[in-house]
Amino acid sequence: MNVHFILYICMVTMKQEEKSKIKRDAIIKATLALVNSNGFHATPMSKLAKLAGVSPGTIYLYFENKQDLVNKVYLEVKEKFTKYSFVNYQPELEVEENFKDMWYRIAAYKLKEIDEALFLAQCDNTPVVDENIRQEGIVHLTPLIEVMHKGKNEGIIKDISDYLLYAYTITPISFLIVMQNREAYNLDPKSIDEAYESAWDSIRK
């Protein structure tokens, strides 16, 4: 087979894959925006397609239905969020050192990726995603859970439910970001430091 023809086929394939990725990313971005503003049930596929700039049929090339779309977007956003948040995790470090780095990176991510943060908050607090998908999302929090368990074993962190520990430490920053998005609160550096101190004080022995 002619080498030039092979190169041409490769280039065409790459362009098609790039176009496909652009369309899929546009669908995901539209999903975040509409679910955040209208809620899951008030977000028809036709409206999603219009905002994404694709035909309604195009969405079904990537997702089976609206529930599958939201489930997959949730897992992708959750994975992206946790990869950023736990990139510096080292099991051998002190509990507070690991926890502090994780907490500040979680806060930084949520402040930078507002749409994704609001979407995750909605999915975590309402029955938007299927329960098995929610449980799969929890697996991505393994580094944080490991730090909490280490802290409990070493007598540094209160020996209470992981859900309570998460509620005391991570949920408040999500709430504050929602309040900031409503222009009811300003998360400046001082406020973020105060939020961290409150989070750590609430779970340490």
Notable traits:
205 residues; Arc Repressor Mutant, subunit A; single chain; mainly alpha; 2 domains; elongated; Tetracycline Repressor, domain 2
Quick description:
The chain has 205 residues and is mostly helical. It has 11 helices and no strands. Helices cover 76% and strands 0% of the residues.
CATH topology group of the largest domain: Tetracycline Repressor, domain 2
For the largest beta-sheet, the strand count, sense and barrel status come to: none
CATH superfamily of the largest domain, please?
Answer: Tetracycline Repressor, domain 2
* Element pattern in H and E: HHHHHHHHHHH
Q: State the helix count.
A: 11
Beta content comes to under 5%
Distance between the termini: 71 Å
Helicity range: over 70%
Q: What's the overall average pLDDT, rounded?
A: 90
Low-confidence stretches: none
The rounded Rg comes to 20 Å
Structural class by sheet pairing and helices = mainly alpha
How many structural domains are formed by the residues?
Answer: 2
Give an overview of the whole structure.
The protein is mostly helical. The chain folds into 2 domains: 1-62, Arc Repressor Mutant, subunit A, CATH 1.10.10; 66-205, Tetracycline Repressor, domain 2 (Orthogonal Bundle), CATH 1.10.357.10. It has helices at 3-38, 45-52, 56-62, 66-85, 95-112, 114-125, 131-139, 142-153, 162-169, 171-181, 189-203. α4 crosses α6 and α4 (66-85) runs parallel beside α7. It is elongated and about 60 Å long.
